[in-house]
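Hey L., structure's done. Input below.
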Amino acid sequence: MVTQKAGVPSGWSTPIGDYRLHLLGIGRSVATVRLRVDWVRRFARAVEVGPWEVGTADVIEWSAGHLWARDTRRSALQSIAGFYSWASESREVGVDPARIPSVRASAPAPRPADDGAVMRGRSSSDWRVRLAVRLASELGLRRGEVARVRGSDLVRDLRGWSLIVHGKGGKARIVPLAADLALEVERRGPGWLFPGADAGHVSPEWIGRLVGRALPSGVTMHALRHRFATRAYERTGDLVAVQRILGHESPQTTLRYLAIADETLRAVVEAVA
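Output:
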């Protein structure tokens, strides 16, 4: 039995615990499970009745009562819809997940790190920072993917080196990498590149904080990923290839990562003038 936080009304603890186990069982990350379950708990405390006494209108009213940012509202409603979609497979529920309003993700402006930030990270006295910065800025890896790199993930064939990247949702992809970066990974041995207490490796949050302290204020590991996406697209013009390397399911997601320089836009216009 999973122990729930205090304050959840009667009748919610067991289904919330079962839903948490379901999410873990289908391979959702610990961070995703924590987020989804926390939203369900917050909803439970707000409605103050059992989960099977709630209707779709209650979900909409709960959402409407908060001045959340778009992405916050989207996360909340997706979490509640997911809970009732799971529950509806084994019992009748009053909430119809299909009738919970969907909220489109906001389109934040791309924020690629500049050359100075990358050089600062690569000049760190901590080899872990230097290597993590290279993996994020040269391969476009997410912080969670950096945390999960093993030396044994290196693959070499006649065309050069590649890295098996363990992405979101347990999905793996193969990304080519430069020989000098491959050798940096290889020299750390076949095990976890960044060993720690989170399933044998450091957590994404831990590696993110470590690298963030070495970068200029406001620059994150995700900004290094944005930098890779922007540079890769500018130099190749191949959106599909960039999408595959980043591990995005849709090219529309990749487009949100691209900060196209004014000079590039001007060159496009001049090319057809």
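The chain has two domains: 13-99, 115-261. Residues 1-5 have pLDDT under 50 and may be disordered.

-- N.
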